[in-house]
Amino acid sequence: MTLVPPSTQVQPYKLSFGVGGLNVAGASIAARLYLDLGDWVAVRAALDSGNLLQARTVSTAKRLNRELIQRISQLSISEVELITEATADERAYVMWAAVCRRYTLVAEFAEEVLRDRYLLMASDVLPEHFEAFARGKTVWHPELAELKATTLSELRNNLFRLMREAGLVTADHTIVQAVLSSRVRDEFALREPSDIRFFPTKEAA
Which end of the chain is more exposed for a tag (fewer CB within 10 A), N or C? Predict the structure, then answer.
């Protein structure tokens, strides 16, 4: 776990990671569009015009599409290609990595709490672990201290939903070991540091 000195300038956390959940199904649609169109702006326009994610309202569709593009555009072209042919587990892992790349808070919780607890042979990750994590982060992120309790609770619920949809925890908060396929592992290992650090696995990050 790497701590940033308080004197270092730290960007405020982006906190909109709850929009649409992990949205693995939408990612598959967007990935195929990108391989055809080669441009994320064009992909978003296609998603908006066709309501391809089948949102109930225009405003909801635009919000979901914007969030999806912000996440999936974090991926390399080979990872986008992988999404179109991946198994359900592989697709979920890749989108979890995309969320971690997009949202520093999610990435830090994944590495410093979820993965660390797994490596320490803890069986679960609980809501109170998020609350302790958030309290600790207020040293560098005072914006967290300014949040209402209800907002912080919503962030916690959104994060746990993402972890469940990624197959990393169960509904009763039990940690599930991530079993990375060789092609997913190879993609994550191309980054420095490796995105394997976001997963509950004993594989070296």
Answer: N
CA–CA dist 102, 72 (Å, integer): 9
The pTM of the full predicted model, rounded to 2 decimals, is: 0.92
Stronger pLDDT, 67 or 53, i.e. the higher one? 67
Q: What tokens does 126 get?
A: 């609980």
Bridge partners of 169, per DSSP, are 175
How far is Cα 137 from Cα 131, in angstroms, rounded to an integer? Answer: 10
Give residue-wise pLDDT tens across range 72-99. Answer: 999 999 999 999 999 999 999 999 999 9
Pick the CATH number of 104-198 from 2.40.30.20, 3.80.10.10, 1.10.3540.10, 1.10.600.10: 1.10.3540.10
CA distance 54 to 66: 14
Q: Helix (H, G, I), strand (E, B), or coil: what is residue 169? A: strand
Name which of 28, 115, 34, 130 is nearest 73 in CA terms: 34
